[in-house]
Amino acid sequence: MIxxxxxxxxxxxxxxxxxxxxxxxxxxxxxxxxYHVSSGVALTVIxxxxxxxxxxxxxxxxxxxxWSRTPALLTQxxxxxxxxxxxxxxxxxxxxxxxxxxxxxFAALLSPPSLRALTNSQxxxxxxxxxxxxxxxxxxxxxxxxxR
Length: 148
Hints:
This protein is mostly helical.
């Protein structure tokens, strides 16, 4: 359970980074510094939706909900890809933060305690199926008699 909470913290941190980027995009769009105002507004709306989705996944991870595992893994994958892209674009501050969070997120999600918690592998082993009693043999049937 502790590992899934660590994963939830990483997911929440990524949500916070997306929120900061969304606020910066919104400010740029409002001040007219965006390439196109309409694209700045669209990016802001998409950013708000992404923040809400990431926060929902972080809450699911904190409660060890099975459904949260796949979105969390995809978040780490996309965060790593975007982080590498930002590092190549010489944005070391944002890129390094995303790559570190993605690596930490993957490590926490793929650790054995987290896998057990998020895949319900801790359930008690099921009992072997009960044996069926042997089938009773029905008494032999008498052949039908012919009536004349």
